[in-house]
Every structure is written in C-alpha cells, then in structure tokens.
Amino acid sequence: MERVCILGAGSWGTAQSIVLHKNGYQVLMWVGPDDDMESIVKKGENSRYLPGVRIPGEIIWSRNLAEAVQGAQAIILAVPSQVLREVCVELKPHLRPGVLLVNTAKGLEIKSGMRLSQVAEDVLGPGIRDYFAVLSGPSHAEEVARQMPSVLTVAAYRKEIACTVQDLYMSPVFRVYTNPDVPGVELGGALKNVIALATGIVQGLKYGDNIIAALMTRGLAEMTRMGVAMGGHHRTFNGLSGMGDLVVTCCSRHSRNRRAGELIGQGYSLQDCLKAVGMVVEGVPTTRVLFHLAEEYRVDMPITRACYNILFNQIPPIQAVEELMSRSKKHEIEEVVKDTESW
Length: 343
Fold this sequence. Notes:
Blueprint: E1 3-7, H1 11-22, E2 26-30, H2 37-43, E3 60-62, H3 65-69, E4 74-77, H4 84-91, E5 100-103, H5 116-124, E6 132-136, H6 141-144, E7 150-156, H7 159-169, E8 174-179, H8 182-204, H9 209-229, H10 240-251, H11 256-265, H12 270-277, H13 283-297, H14 302-312, H15 317-325, H16 334-338
Parallel strand pairs: 1-2, 1-4, 2-3, 4-5, 5-6, 7-8
Antiparallel strand pairs: 6-7
C-alpha cells in the first residue's frame, strides 16, 4: 500500500496525516469547504486545530474529493459524525472495489440512531463490510501529532482487514491492537463522550475528585449496559475503546467534551459553551440520540438522562446532580450478589 487519502482536515485528520506520512505512505488530504486549505499549505501548520504542529510539506491537499481518493489503497474517514453520511454519499461514485475504508470518527447519527459503520453500510451497501474497519481508543490529536506514544484498537468484520489497518498505523510511537467487535469498539468511542460531559459538569461545579471517580466508574457500567444491548461484547468496554478512551476523555486537558461540561457547570448556556469551545463536541449530539435509544432499548442510563436534562431541558446542573445522588438504593454489582449464596 502506497497512497492513503484522509477525508477531513480537523485536528484528528491532520494528526493521522502526520502519523501515516512518517510511516512512509503518500498522504493526500481532502479539505472541507469550511477549512482554510490555503493557509495550511502556506504556513505548513493547521493553526485552527493544531497550532504549533509542523505538517510535512510532502502531504498533498485538495478540495476535490474525486481527485483526492484517486489511486488510494485506503480511505480514512475523519469527519464529524453528523456529516459522515453526507461525505459517504459524495464518496460513493468514486469508491473503487477493494479499497479499505477506515472510520476514525466517534459518535452516533442523530436522525437514525445508527452507529457510524451502519451509516456507511446504509449509503455504500452491505459489501462495504468486507473492507471496513474502525479505529478507536485514547487518542487526543494534540499528542498523536507530536509523536507522543499512543495505543489504540482497530475493529473489523474480517481479521485480515483489521491486521492490514494495524500494519498501516503501527510505529514505535503508535501501537494498535485488533478486535472483531465492531459494535463494541464503535459504541465505546461514542458513549464515553457523554460521561466526559458529566465529569466536566461536576468539575465546573467544583465538586472534587470523589464524584469524578464515581461518575467515571458508574459511567463505564452505564456504557457497558447500553453497549451490550446494542450488540457489543461486554469485555470490549473494559478495553482501550471503552475504559481507555473514557479515562482520557474525562481527565485530559485536551478533551473538548470535558471542557464543554466544565463551561456548562460554570453556568454557560449550551450555545455559548459550544461557541467557546470552537470545535465539534461529539458528546452533545450523542447525548440527544443516546437518551432516546436508552428508552427504546429499556436500558437504565441515569447519567445520560441527567446530561440530557441539563443540555436540552434546562435543568440546573446542581439539581441534576442532587437527583442522581438521591435515587433509590441498589446493589453496586447485581451479578456479585446473585453469586454470593450467603447474602
């Protein structure tokens, strides 16, 4: 494989271009209409999303999607989740049979509630499964672009596709594991953004470390319940795309979702919060769709429900936290109680 095309020139797409260039591939970046391609090419820097990171001059930039994907052996989707369908529609007439399609976005489609692989399959047809993979895990672009060690996982329906993508990304500073659980890996990356919003909110309220640790722990349990209901394997949520991504998104200074939650906790409106962050906050649309999916699947998701009420029903954050804390008593882990005969 020699040529790779990345669709999306945000922070994550740009960071991946640097990784893949250093791995010896010819990288072509497709730039959306809202991105200042001329400035990026002139400065050798994506100053809007990754200020201070030098972009190799050998990377090719284009606004023409047909031109960008021509001759590519792998196409990387690095666009926000809510425009992925639109991009796949534009890509469809130019996608050659047998070309790898790797999704690296994290989220759920609002209108349909679909996972992003399902969106791709809905547009491109069921045959795309044979060449589709999803890359996920703890991977802030700010660190990946600066060649800081990062470890992720790639899931695919076919083992050979997962291994091919693994080889594509692997380097001394970028380690990739494989996983056959496409739904679980996708859902871990999507659902953790809601929990990161919640931890940000309590940070904004200055409630301390105890509640943050509790939210992350109970949030993982919530993610696992919903993930299993939607077809994921429960063990996947203890891995890199579940717990790993949850930890980094809740704790890192680079996390947009945590930052957005902090602003909400400090009293910002949702509109002002998103304006202040200045980049896509995937946890906001995911909270909306996940709230309704939880009702559809009859899965108890109290943290998600609290976030939904804060974001979309204007419930004060303090009130939402009080309601979480005063719910009826229950066991922490029902399976342990069932397995303990003396209780």
